[in-house]
Amino acid sequence: MPFPFSLPTTSTLSFSAFLRSSTHPSLPLTATTQRSVLRAVLKRHKRLPASSQPSDLPNVLAALSEYIPYLLALDAGLSGGTVAGEEVDVILEKELELEWRATLTHGVSGRDPARVKLRSLEYEISFALQTLAFTYTLLARSQLWTLYTPTTPTAEQRTIAISSATRYLLQASSVHSCLLNRSGQWVNLSPVLDISPPILNALSSLAHAEATLLAVLKDDPYPAVIAQSRNKNDRDWMIKSPDIPRVRAHLFARLCLATAEHAAKASAMLHQQPGIPGKPQEDLLTYTDDLRRCARGKACRFFAIDADLGGSTGQAIAWLRGGKSELGYSSTADEEKNTRGLMTKLKRDWTEKREDRRIEKGSKEWGGDAGRLEEGRVIDMLEAKWVKMNDTINTQSIPPSAPLLATMPSGREIHSSPTAYAPPGLDEDVLAKMRAPVGEEDGDRPIFAGEEGDSSEEEGGGGARVVVGAFPGTGGYY
Description:
Elements: E1 19-21, H1 27-47, H2 53-78, E2 82-83, E3 86-87, E4 90-92, E5 98-101, E6 115-118, H3 121-145, H4 155-183, H5 197-217, H6 222-229, H7 249-270, H8 282-309, H9 313-327, H10 332-337, H11 339-361, H12 372-394, H13 402-405, H14 428-433
Antiparallel strand pairs: 1-4, 2-3, 5-6
Helix pairs in contact: 1-2, 2-3, 3-4, 4-5, 5-7, 7-8, 8-9, 8-12, 9-12
């Protein structure tokens, strides 16, 4: 499952206090208005319960889609460019001062990530576009969650959900690629780890890996069988056993290996030290490694299915045991032999039950193992079935797994390398309205300042206190 990113929040910012446009005087003020709307939407989204946040993501996406064209118009005006074929002139009167929360940087456990002070419009663009990419990833998660709801989805519903999630993940990868290209033009080093080139490259590869794995999930019947077996409300087993069609096992295995390669690349980029203080979140590092393990374990399973279809049940069992070692689990024989293996099995069972409860409650942390536990369940099911069949009917010898793992081929791509995201621009009629001068009653005040105060109130500080009976503005003295 895609990684559960946290959307960052930001401080207030009035572009009119830092920028001025001689050709379109209303542009900085209107951009401030759209940014204030986005800030209010992000703060409201953060305070929603985890189960209610997926339904609020379209509101976040709409606010970002409205704000980004104005932000890029300001950037084009500063660099002497054109917008919708019209020249826009923007003058920087003084250096911008803004703050965003660095949600990818490792911080104190149990506390909100620290806000980073930034002093460039380019960093504002980077955080806005990165928030857009995170929103696309979270929309993909919300689509995939429908596969694990108490009501078992039909084959058509499953295909639609996976196709939508794949489209969102490819869009997220495209946005990260766009940010990576923009960061190559920077003169100074990024002041925060979240928007540094290695992190952007890793996030693009990670989204591409997740989209590649979903191409396998769409035609893989076994995860659906496992999800149906643990669904307490499902009654289809009373009528018939689940249909498991033949799969293109070797092709799917190559796709899984391509996913593992992208995940390994993302993990290597995340472990780079670009000379910026801090390190990535441990959850993100663990998730990337789990995704690589899950992809390689899934590839071993498909090689096992291919061997079983060819009549080599012993070799198929060896592939399954190799897949369990790739996932980081002990084989069934080791679990039965020693106490350590038994304790590992008990810990794994407890982790699986906790993950099931997270899915039932719609918790934000569900799927944080990148599907590793689910793949382990599928391999356990096939291993128990084939070992029983081999012991009673085929009686083939089971070769060691290590030589088989050494013969795995390279991966095969299904999605082309993501093209850089082409952000939308302002329409001509919208840009023409920006030529109107700013009214005297507006001044530097944004048209929409949001319903809430600054984000510093989340830590308990900031924000004027209102004391009943006190003189206005003196609440801080009480």
